[in-house]
Write a structure and sequence with these properties.
alpha+beta
């Protein structure tokens, strides 16, 4: 399925042409809220969906080198998992 990019500020949100993705970030503050919820572990484990994981990863890539973003995502994910008592074995994180 072709993907279009809908630009909002400096951020692009992939939108399937058929319109099946129902959520779009309207501004940077909404994205930052997802990142802050992840980093502070305020977001519940069941509420942190794949879309949120990708949002955080892309935000990190936007503001750092790929290696720095990778390290930050790994460290944050381990912190998040430990905080919420989720086993690390589910993820390929070293």
């Amino acid at each position: 399925m072709p993907v279009l990019l809908q630009m909002t500020g400096r951020n692009a949100c992939p939108t399937p042409k058929a319109g099946k993705m129902g959520h779009h970030f309207q501004n940077d503050k909404e994205i930052e809220a997802v990142v802050q919820g992840f980093e502070s572990c305020a977001t519940g484990a069941d509420d942190f969906k794949h879309r949120d994981h990708l949002t955080v990863a892309v935000w990190y890539l936007h503001s750092a080198t790929p290696e720095q973003a990778f390290q930050k995502m790994c460290a944050g994910l381990l912190q998040f998992l430990d905080h919420h008592g989720v086993g690390r074995t589910k993820y390929n994180v070293k």
